[in-house]
TrEMBL record:
Belongs to the YicC/YloC family. Its cofactor is a divalent metal cation. InterPro entries: YicC-like_C (IPR013551), YicC-like_N (IPR013527), YicC/YloC-like (IPR005229). Keywords: Endonuclease, Hydrolase, Nuclease. It comes from Candidatus Criblamydia sequanensis CRIB-18. This is YicC family protein. Residues 2-157 form the Endoribonuclease YicC-like N-terminal domain. NCBIfam families: YicC/YloC family endoribonuclease (TIGR00255).
Length: 293
């Protein structure tokens, strides 16, 4: 089953410690990147958060946002960052003098925007209570996140199956219109050689051999066989494997290589038109694969 790289989950986890709201979202990326936005109280959990996300996700930009509202009896150690405040005082004093304002006005306007006013010390009792509470919420959010990825993946999978059926149809038409191309081209070249030779002069064996080689080069049987194989592999990969976006992209590259070879080898108008249609549909498939994990 395929999974989409774009997904979203939102979990509001509540128990005796308080409330933990977690939002997980993701967008397309060629490789995995994890961004976290955490309250300072739980910043110590950041490495474990990234580890759990990496276990669930192969690629994409995954954004984890957490907000906490703790009950008043939940133990944690917080203190004012007095050293930081002392450093701010002369700055605020200078700004007040420059703009003709009271220091209090400057402080009230700017202090709420400072992120280092409060220090949170590691308290074993707090961490002991917070760890199971928080990671229960995170696991719940990750599970919902996976469900969202699979739901979007099913839509993409249906679209890709339909488009691959179109490729199979185009390939069948190409095969039907290229039957006996080698023989027809050989006869055409042989007739053209006879027209060019003076009357009464027989075709040189070497010239006919070259005509035969040119006809062989126009044969696209091998490319058609390989295309069928690549399409079958693409469909099997979608059905039986997850987190295979990169593999599917690689298979598409091989399909593109074969159809380009056919396009360059053929002189048949119908086949040339069909290869254009084939390539157009293949580009749509490649665009969709940018959304697959």
């Amino acid at each position: 089953m395929l999974r989409s790289m774009t997904a979203f989950s939102r979990v509001n986890h509540v128990d005796s410690i308080g409330r933990c709201l977690i939002e997980i979202s993701s967008i397309n990326r060629r490789h995995l990147e994890v961004q976290t936005f955490l309250p300072k109280e739980i910043s110590i959990f950041d490495p474990e958060i990234r580890k759990r996300v990496q276990k669930k996700t192969a690629r994409g930009l995954v954004i984890v946002k957490v907000s906490l509202r703790l009950n008043k009896d939940t133990p944690f150690v917080a203190s004012a960052n007095n050293g930081f405040l002392e450093q701010l005082k002369p700055v605020y004093k200078e700004m007040a003098k420059e703009f003709g304002l009271a220091e209090k006005e400057i402080a009230l306007a700017l202090l709420p925007k400072e992120s280092n006013l409060i220090l949170f010390d590691e308290d074993p009792a707090f961490q002991e209570k917070m760890e199971p509470f928080f990671f229960a919420a995170l696991d719940e959010a990750l599970e919902a996140f996976q469900i969202s990825k699979e739901k979007e993946g099913r839509v993409l999978e249906e679209d890709l199956f339909a488009r691959m059926e179109k490729l199979k149809h185009f390939l069948s038409l190409i095969e039907n219109n290229s039957e006996n191309v080698r023989e027809l081209l050989y006869e055409r070249l042989k007739a053209r050689i006879k027209e060019m030779l003076p009357e009464g002069v027989s075709s040189d064996e070497r010239v006919l051999r070259e005509a035969c080689l040119l006809a062989d080069k126009a044969d696209i049987t091998e490319e058609i066989v390989r295309l069928k194989s690549h399409i079958d592999l693409f469909l099997k990969t979608m059905e039986h494997e997850s987190q295979q976006g990169k593999k599917l992209e690689f298979i598409c590259q091989e399909i593109h290589r074969e159809i380009t070879t056919i396009s360059s080898k053929t002189n048949e108008t119908k086949v040339s038109i069909l290869t254009v249609d084939f390539k157009s549909e293949l580009e749509k498939i490649k665009e969709q694969l940018q959304n697959i994990e």
